[in-house]
Write a structure and sequence with these properties.
The complex is a heterodimer of chains A (447) and B (245). Chain A has 447 residues and is of the alpha/beta class. Chain A is built from 17 helices and 16 strands. Chain A has a domain at 263-445. In chain A, α1 (21-31) crosses α11, α8 packs antiparallel against α11 (322-341) and α15 crosses α17 (432-445). With 245 residues, chain B is of the alpha+beta class. Chain B is built from six helices and 15 strands. Chain B has helices spanning 16-21, 65-74, 82-94, 104-115, 172-178, 239-243, and strands spanning 7-8, 11-12, 44-47, 52-55, 98-99, 102-103, 122-133, 136-146, 149-157, 166-170, 194-197, 205-211, 216-222, 231-232, 236-238. In chain B, strands 7, 8, 9, 10, 11, 12, 13 and 14 form an eight-stranded mixed β-sheet that branches. In chain B, strands 3-4-15 form a three-stranded antiparallel β-sheet. In chain B, a hairpin with a 4-residue loop joins β3 and β4. Chain B starts with 6 loop residues before the first strand and ends with a helix. Classes of the chains: A alpha/beta (447), B alpha+beta (245). At the A-B interface, α8, α10, α14, α15 and α17 of A face β1, β2, α1 and α2 of B.
Chain lengths: 447, 245
Amino acid sequence: MNKSYKNSTELMQLHGQSMYLNDIVDACLIGRLNLFLQGDTGSGKTQLARDVMSYFGNKAMFVLGRNDMDTRELFQRFNLHKLGYKPKYDLEPLVNPETGIVEWYYPAVENGVFTYKKINDEHAAIVRSKLEKLAGNTEDVKELTSRINTHLIVVDELPNCVPAVRAQLFNLFDGFIEISGTPYRIGKGYSVGIATGNIGQKFTESSNDLGRALKDRMHVVIDTDYFFPTPRDTLEILAGNTNPRVEFSGIAEDDSAKIIGKSQEIETTPIPLEKLFIANYLLHGLDHCSKGSKRRMKDAWPTQLENHEQGSDVGLVLPVSPRAAKSIIRLSQSLDSVAEQKGALQSVIESNYFDSMMQAYKFVSAYSGVLNESMVDAAYYSDKYKALDAVIATTKQQFEVQGDIIRAGVEMAASGKTDARVLNKFTDRWKFMRNTLEQLLAMQKSK
Amino acid sequence: MIHIPKNFMGKPIAGSLEKVLSKTPESSGEPQIEPATAQNLSGYIYVPSINVYVAKERTHHGLNWHQTHEALHNEGLRMPTIHEFREFLLYLQKNPNGVQGATNEEVAGIFDDIVTVRNPNRAEWLDADFKVKGKELYIHYNHRTVSGTLTPQNKELLTDYLTENKTPGIYMHDWLQTANNHGLPKSTIAEGNLYYWAPMKDNKSVARFDADSVGVGLFCDRDPGYSGGSLGLFASISASQNENK
């Protein structure tokens, strides 16, 4: 990869390997997880996204968020032959990387080299006139372009777009484009999105439209200000180049096939039982409170918790959603894979699934709206990652204390016989394990 | 398809069932107190008045009252009673220049951590379980794991204690100096800023000491099933117990 972005700040130690921002981005790519890079202007997030584009050769698309955008333009062209217009070339929309404006080009061969040429003003006027005669009914002359095969879509400054445009962009991140009521899959089964923006610390509040949308569509959110490059990195960056503009990396070797292959491998690898139990703890164990269920409390959480619960993880964090739980498992699998590529032993990885799940939980959940913002402000100096570190420490302690009983439960399930003495040992926040083990037992019996 | 692994969190699954079931009362044989292991006491402060070592740091966060006992007993440690915790605080208060095993800065830091009104929330479990027998309220303490079951070694009638809540509060200096033999404030205690929730007659209340930005208090009405990231304890070990290892 052509790398202009440099950052050797460690995000985590995983399975004995130091993991950096580039590693998390790699994990998102092979896990096919959409990534939002939150950070102050000029912090390098756009550069990082541009660098990632070079992985995908010409199957990456850069979109500068604009309010007058119609994302369908990005994937369609006019077949001018159908307009009865000569010469017989088709117009393709391309995004000007400097301005973000969609401009119209036609394919041409110059000195044996295939290229795109911008139509001149005269041709543009003719096309406009022909299209206007159709009175807006241009669907018959439109075709999908090869850009529908794009694997990576980068949207810069996404928060600058109005909600209607953001909704279109989020559809792209979901891997499809809707044209005239028909959904078309993007990237032939592999597509992933990276968005950047600076929307402050409060954007995940439920009253915030963007916060809700981000929560739904962006699987992983990383605050690049928090993991700012080291002085050594910035010295290297500054000494090498004082151009303050984003460097547009040239098209390097196309690693698409390698990334897609790894992604398919991760998707088809069975999920370890340990990770499923941890995910169920995050879904159900963290839901437990004196009122029964935090989810059912809705807006009464956390203010109507018992006094003694406020100030603890019961009042600090909500359970994750099923969608987030899937993202956590997927990111954990990808992080394990990246750590293995960096030299971690398989035996070490298998003994420490808990660690990769917790790191994945941290980066999926920090900005997903599960934290009690006022408590994070008051007790953790507004540091979401620190607040989640506290939740993770509690979770680790919980699993260590409950470890023998969980192992006994698994052994019971493997034996195919229910033992109430074991199930009854799961109480309070661990009650969900009774039902979990009963299901595991049923699955074993049906084998 | 879910595959059942051989290990969970790095430890073998085989044999866990037997290990866990052997701790259940139904399958236990002769009642036996689980053995404790000798401790490295470098992280502890010796409190002479009670002949107990108390940890310099709050540990075992995120566990409920029962789980905390279980974890402690597995490590050869135990939970301080209200009386022991009060003696520990009194010892720290009386020795601002440091004690054996802790510098003046450490003493000040521990005392501040426990009793200062500020964020973040800090709390510690205490070994006191309040039970009703007839119409009287009893305190159960000195819990040990006996044949896999948490069992109080002492069950005593509560007498000469403040039966009403004070929010706030009672005078902490008085509490430290004049508490009854179970560590509870007496009914004659002066008023002050230490919040106090009296033992409840609901058969499901245990004791805890809490501090946050609102106040500091001795709670004798807490739910033992609760757990939280900021809630732990200052683990203790009897000096005589450790000498015998």
